[in-house]
C-alpha cells in the first residue's frame, strides 16, 4: 500500500490578491483543491510553517496527501507550487483530488543504491553520471511508491542503464516506454573521464632552450 501523509487545512473564505496577501502576512498559504469528477474546486489555507517543512521532503511531491479539513479527509496529489523568487516563502499551492479506482500519472524520485561497491566506482578515472533523478509512472493510487530504487552494484565502465531496465514495483508502468525505442533513455552512464594534458613546457627544457639561444648571439 502507498504511504499517505496528513496535512491539516482550513477553508479560505476571502478571494482575490488582497485577501491572499493578508493570508500570507498571517503565516498561511492560499491553496486550491480541484478535480474529482463533479466536485467543485475548494479554496483552502495551510500553515506556511507546515508547508515549508513538508516541501523539504521527497514525499510531498510524489505521495498521496491526506488533506484534513476538520475531520473531512480528501486524498490529493500536489500539482503546482508557486515560490517567491528570492524569499524562502511558498505563495500558492494546487492540489488534485484522486479517485482510488483510477490510474494516476506522477513523477517519483529515483534512489541509486550500491554505487560505492560497483566495479565502475572502483575503477580509477571512471565517472558515474545520473542522467535523470526522477521518472514519470502510471499506477493506481494504492500502488504508488514514494521512490524507485536503481541498483548500480554491478555497473562497469561503459555500462548504460536504460529506463526499460528499471525494476518497477508491482502495478506500476512507465508510459514513456510505450512511445517507442527512442524514448528508452539512459538513466545511468559509467565512462572514463578525459585526462587533461599539461600543455605547459617542462622547466628544464625551457631553460636549456634559453641558454642555447644565448650561446648563438
Outline the structure in words.
By secondary structure, this protein is of the alpha+beta class. The strands form three sheets. Strands 1-5-6-7-3-4-2 form a seven-stranded mixed sheet. Strands 10-8-11 form a three-stranded mixed sheet, with no helix packed on it. Strands 9-13-12 form a three-stranded antiparallel sheet, with no helix packed on it. It has helices at residues 17-25, 48-54, 59-62, 203-215; strands at residues 4-8, 10-11, 28-34, 42-47, 64-69, 72-83, 90-97, 104-113, 126-130, 134-139, 148-151, 160-162, 186-192. It contains four helices and 13 strands. 17% of the residues are buried. Helix content is 15%, strand content 37%. The longest helix has 13 residues, at 203-215. A hairpin with a 6-residue loop joins strand 6 and strand 7 (90-97).
Topology readout:
Blueprint: E1 4-8, E2 10-11, H1 17-25, E3 28-34, E4 42-47, H2 48-54, H3 59-62, E5 64-69, E6 72-83, E7 90-97, E8 104-113, E9 126-130, E10 134-139, E11 148-151, E12 160-162, E13 186-192, H4 203-215
Parallel strand pairs: 1-5, 3-7, 8-11
Antiparallel strand pairs: 2-4, 3-4, 5-6, 6-7, 8-10, 9-13, 12-13
- Rg (C-alpha, Å): 27 Å
- The SS-based structural class is alpha+beta
Biggest beta sheet summary: 7 strands, mixed
Q: What form results from the Cα inertia axes?
A: elongated
Uncertain spans: 195-200
Helix % is 10-25%
Report the β-strand fraction as a percent range.
35-45%
How far the N terminus sits from the C terminus, by CA atoms, comes to: 88 Å
Mean pLDDT: 87
Number of strands: 13
Order of helices and strands: EEHEEHHEEEEEEEEEH
Sequence of strands across the biggest β-sheet? 1-5-6-7-3-4-2
Amino acid at each position: 500500500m502507498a504511504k499517505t501523509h496528513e496535512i491539516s487545512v482550513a477553508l479560505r473564505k476571502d478571494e482575490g490578491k488582497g485577501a491572499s496577501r493578508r493570508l500570507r502576512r498571517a503565516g498561511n498559504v492560499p491553496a486550491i483543491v480541484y478535480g474529482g469528477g463533479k466536485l467543485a474546486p475548494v479554496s483552502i489555507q495551510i500553515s506556511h510553517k507546515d508547508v515549508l517543512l513538508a516541501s523539504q521532503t521527497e514525499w510531498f511531491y510524489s505521495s498521496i496527501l491526506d488533506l484534513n479539513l476538520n475531520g473531512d479527509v480528501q486524498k490529493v496529489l500536489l500539482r503546482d507550487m508557486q515560490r517567491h523568487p528570492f524569499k524562502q516563502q511558498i505563495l500558492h499551492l494546487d492540489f488534485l483530488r484522486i479517485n482510488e479506482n483510477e490510474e494516476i500519472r506522477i513523477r517519483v524520485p529515483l534512489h541509486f543504491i550500491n554505487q560505492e561497491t560497483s566495479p565502475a566506482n572502483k575503477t580509477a578515472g571512471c565517472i558515474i553520471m545520473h542522467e535523470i533523478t526522477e521518472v514519470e509512472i502510471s499506477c493506481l493510487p494504492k500502488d504508488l511508491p514514494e521512490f524507485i530504487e536503481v541498483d548500480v552494484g554491478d555497473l562497469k565502465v561503459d555500462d548504460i542503464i536504460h529506463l526499460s531496465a528499471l525494476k518497477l514495483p508491482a502495478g506500476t508502468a512507465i508510459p514513456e516506454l510505450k512511445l517507442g525505442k527512442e524514448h528508452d533513455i539512459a538513466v545511468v552512464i559509467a565512462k572514463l573521464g578525459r585526462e587533461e594534458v599539461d600543455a605547459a613546457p617542462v622547466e628544464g627544457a625551457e631553460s636549456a632552450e634559453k641558454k642555447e639561444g644565448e650561446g648563438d648571439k
